[in-house]
Design a protein that fits this description.
190 residues, 4 helices
């Protein structure tokens, strides 16, 4: 098998990429090379049969269109700045892009795994703030970041519903004080 024929599978096995171009198989050349773009085969129990949907995982699994009517998906995908932003030199490992699809327009946001839980409603609309971050770490290849789509969808849910818990219990300050006091007692009164 030559390098041209080799195929890499992602961890979940849903998407395949060619080794030479990094483009996922099944994604038409007319759409941008985006790690959040997937093709899902669907079948209905009617006369239509099987069709393939184009899905934006950064938008929470938003259906952009079908392979038979690709024009709307092209329009939305080419207006997206996420694929270009991920190639920016200050793109970080902790960067989580997501898209909010509204009735009139679509907006990209860039959350940070370190700071997003502080105020999800103030997620930046660009990556300018990444260049001065003290937690900045170079972003590896997209195939090396596991569960990108799941994390992006989680950030989107939290952005749309800020009261949603981040799966972290709130600390009990009395318990923290007690443990601190016990540690001091163990140090000084052994």
């Amino acid at each position: 098998m030559s390098m041209h024929d080799s195929i890499l599978k992602t961890k979940n096995g849903h998407s395949e990429k060619t080794a030479e171009t990094g483009r996922r198989q099944g994604i038409p050349e007319t759409l941008p090379n985006c790690p959040f773009l997937t093709i899902k085969r669907s079948s209905e129990n009617n006369h239509r049969g099987v069709f393939e949907q184009i899905i934006c995982e950064a938008g929470g699994g938003f259906v952009l269109g079908t392979m038979s009517s690709i024009n709307e998906a092209q329009k939305i995908c080419h207006s997206c700045d996420i694929p270009i932003s991920l190639k920016f030199k200050y793109a970080c490992l902790y960067l989580v892009p997501f898209r909010v699809f509204l009735e009139n327009h679509v907006q990209s946001y860039y959350g940070c795994r370190w700071y997003f839980s502080l105020n999800p409603q103030k997620a930046p609309k660009n990556m300018d703030w990444c260049s001065g971050c003290r937690f900045w770490f170079p972003r590896p290849g997209e195939s090396q970041i596991p569960d990108q789509a799941r994390i992006s969808q989680k950030f989107l849910r939290i952005f749309l519903n800020p009261s949603e818990n981040l799966d972290r219990p709130t600390p009990d300050l009395r318990e923290e004080e007690r443990r601190w006091y016990e540690r001091l007692q163990d140090i000084f009164y052994w």
